[in-house]
Amino acid sequence: MRRGETVRFHIDNSLPEGATVHWHGFELPAAADGGPHQLIAPGERWSPSFEVRQRASLYWYHSHLHRGAGPQVYAGLAAPIYVRDDEEDRLDLPSDYGVDDIPLIVQDRMLDKSGRLIYPSGMHAQMMGVRGDHMFVNGTQNAVFEAQSSRLRLRILNGSNARFYNFSLEGNRPMQLIASDGGLLDRAHSIRSLKLAPGERAQVVLDLSEGRPLRLIANSPENGMGMMGGGMMGGGMMGRRNDAGSSEQTSKILDIRPAGSASALPLPAQLASLTPPDPSLAIRTRRFVLDMGMMGGGMSINGATMDMNVINERVPVGQWEIWEIANASMMAHPFHIHNVQFQVLDRDGQVPPPLETGFKDTIVVNPREQVRVLLRFEENTDPDLPYMYHCHILEHEDAGMMGQFVVV
Ligand SMILES: [Cu+2]
């Protein structure tokens, strides 16, 4: 897609069950959002249309079926979307799709002996989220990329149901972080690791000028480690961060084979011109407390479980607000807000890390932590049709860690 154009889709549901298609990261009319209220019945066609208002970046679409997003995304109803715009085109960045600019959709799956997908549905899977033991990148295992350029841009989407990743290059080599969910950062940041929770995206540029093979790997911190081992009941686990686990497993994500050594152009000194978020603009603060209840039995936000018939928040259009998201549970939750790209003010009062200096639509809130974001809904009012805010661990979303808001 290109920023400024109007797009229309025809989505035919050939499945034997209802489905929805949500445009993750887009500002658009509620009727086109593809949330749980835009159900496409079997055999029916849905034809949403919207103007592409987003900055150039990697977005995605996926099922948002009420109480059924987890199994549908797991079975394949998810894919990336590139949005391009003039602002980014003016910069000298790798942008030749499939040549020096490639998407990496990272997903984990569980397979049976015959290679068929298993979607576990027990209580443990629902509480911790469904995690697989096989890694897939763009639907393939053991992915290899034969590079032809001296710079390579990776657009990484954590499209997993529940698994968090900490990406790095083998040998601890640096990557240049250039973009978050909603587009370019103000400048490139040299990083050696990159954490992405389900729903989050990031873009990095790798220097291949030495001509040596590179391997992108990821380890997966346990999220809520010890909860099933009795730790949940004891005070010892309280406040323990999700990345403190010692039983991390490392997975190979992508092998990159450069063509040969060549000189690499430096990245532009400035990428986007971003205005730092100013909390004094906010008219009000809304607070959202995420919780799971005992043993995951009460997935909730502000004490309420998702109810299709309840509008939880009415938000005036055009007004700046601070949304304060707190986590009362023992797992980290990636909080996604529909119809907006927001900026992060602080994380437990601390300045956010580089990935959170740009625009975001999904933000991790660690156990016992509180994150404040600044946002404004610029148009698309509808007093009846709501948008969603929810945890992007899909099994948590399906179990009710979700709420509804209208923009009025
Ligand atoms: Cu969650």
Structural class: mainly beta
The parts where pLDDT drops under 50 for at least 5 residues are 226-247
Question: Per CATH, what is the topology of the largest domain?
Answer: Immunoglobulin-like
> What is bound: which ligands?
copper (II) ion
Assigned CATH class of the largest domain? Mainly Beta
Distance between the termini: 28 Å
Structural features, described:
By secondary structure, the chain is mainly beta. It folds into three domains: 6-89, Immunoglobulin-like; 101-257, Cupredoxins -  blue copper proteins (Immunoglobulin-like), CATH 2.60.40.420; 279-407, Sandwich (Immunoglobulin-like), CATH 2.60.40. The chain is 7% helix and 37% strand. Strands 8, 9, 10, 12, 14, 15 and 17 form a seven-stranded mixed β-sheet that branches. A five-stranded mixed β-sheet has the order 11-19-18-13-16, with no helix packed on it. The protein has a five-stranded mixed β-sheet with strand order 21-20-23-27-25, with no helix packed on it. A hairpin with a 2-residue loop joins strand 14 and strand 15 (183-191). The radius of gyration is 20 Å and the shape is globular. The relative contact order is 0.16. Copper (II) ion is lined by residues 333, 391, 393, 396, 401.
